Amino acid sequence: MSTKDSTEEIIRKIRNGNSGDLDYIYSTYRKEFLTWGKKNFREADFDMMIDAWQNAVVAFYQQIMSNKLMF
Fold first, then answer.
1. Would 2 be classed as within a structural domain?
2. What is the pTM of this model?
3. Which CA distances in Å does 43 have to 3, 33, 46, 54, 57?
4. Dist CA 22 CA 57 (whole Å)
């Protein structure tokens, strides 16, 4: 995934089966999400935050594939 790709292009690529873009999103934003979660949900342990991140990425993917997430 190029940093120049627009949101629309990324969604189109994922919808067309390019898992590389989804992998990039997963690995790029994972640390930021975990940091945010640790700050805002102090009772949650690390495994809970990992599960939440994975669930969020799966939901993102499902929204794309069901055409519910469009620009």
1. no
2. 0.82
3. 35, 16, 10, 19, 22
4. 8
Nearest 5°: the CA angle 47, 64, 57 is 10
CB 14 within 8 A of CB 61: yes
CA distance 13 to 43: 37
Tokens for 52, please give them. 């939440």
The amino acid present at 61, given as its one-letter code, is Y
**pLDDT, tens digit, for every residue of 24-39?**
999 999 999 999 999 9
Question: Looking at 3-7, 47-51, 61-65, which range is the least confident one?
Answer: 3-7
Residue 43, SS3 per DSSP = coil
Range(s) of the domain holding residue 12: 7-65
The total domain count for the chain is 1
